[in-house]
């Protein structure tokens, strides 16, 4: 069990019967009343993000998640197939479980799958991935009215703001946590 005093960002707890990760927390002391804790949680099964308030001193069951390395294989409809690199098992996740991670999935990408009680619930992407640009407008010298960037569509459908010198068919490195351009590869 973990009390509200030990909570911090990234800790996984059981909340209302579901595995949840703490995205933000804030300890608030109200004038005459007792202290409360405001939590911003993400349900790992559904991907839903929600806010809850609880009393200071409440206890939660801390969860420990298993991680294993998998390789992305393919998707069919809204099901995404991964292969466990140690057991060669096929693991299937739906679009809701992946969330925005689906925008970074390219063939043979290695990433970590997160399991709770042997049930795969989500994936953890590498910090940066390399994506190929399928379409972007040409940039012209002196065209800096928009701050020197332009939108580019990648092979996964993700739209990223890139510098003017980047063109179609270039490969770029993208930060998976922010979705921003890092460098041309």
From TrEMBL:
InterPro entries: Elong-fact-P_C, NA-bd_OB-fold, Rib_uL2_dom2, Transl_elong_fac_P/YeiP, Transl_elong_KOW-like, Transl_elong_P/YeiP_cen, Transl_elongation_fac_P, Translation_prot_SH3-like_sf. The keyword Cytoplasm applies. Keywords: Cytoplasm, Elongation factor, Protein biosynthesis. Residues 129-184 form the Elongation factor P C-terminal domain. It comes from the Bacteria. Pathway: Protein biosynthesis; polypeptide chain elongation. GO terms for molecular function: translation elongation factor activity. It holds the Pfam family EFP. Residues 67-121 form the Translation elongation factor P/YeiP central domain. SMART domains: EFP, Elong-fact-P_C. It is found in: Cytoplasm. Involved in peptide bond synthesis. Stimulates efficient translation and peptide-bond synthesis on native or reconstituted 70S ribosomes in vitro. Probably functions indirectly by altering the affinity of the ribosome for aminoacyl-tRNA, thus increasing their reactivity as acceptors for peptidyl transferase. NCBIfam families: efp, PRK00529.1. Belongs to the elongation factor P family. This is Elongation factor P. The gene is efp_2.
């Amino acid at each position: 069990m973990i009390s509200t005093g030990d909570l911090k960002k990234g800790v996984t707890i059981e909340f209302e019967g579901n595995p949840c990760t703490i995205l933000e927390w804030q300890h608030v002391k109200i004038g005459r009343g007792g202290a409360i804790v405001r939590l911003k949680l993400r349900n790992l099964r559904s991907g839903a993000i929600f806010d809850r308030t609880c009393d200071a001193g409440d206890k939660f069951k801390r969860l420990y998640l298993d991680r294993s390395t998998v390789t992305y294989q393919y998707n069919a409809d809204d099901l995404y197939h991964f292969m466990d690199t140690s057991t060669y098992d096929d693991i299937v996740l739906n679009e809701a479980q992946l969330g925005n991670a689906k925008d970074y999935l390219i063939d043979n990408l290695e990433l970590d799958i997160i399991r709770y009680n042997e049930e795969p619930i989500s994936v953890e992407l590498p910090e940066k991935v390399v994506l190929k640009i399928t379409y972007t407008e040409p940039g012209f010298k002196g065209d800096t009215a928009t701050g020197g960037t332009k939108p580019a569509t990648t092979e996964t459908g993700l739209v990223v703001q890139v510098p003017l010198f980047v063109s179609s068919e270039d490969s770029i490195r993208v930060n998976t946590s922010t979705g921003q351009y890092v460098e041309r590869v």
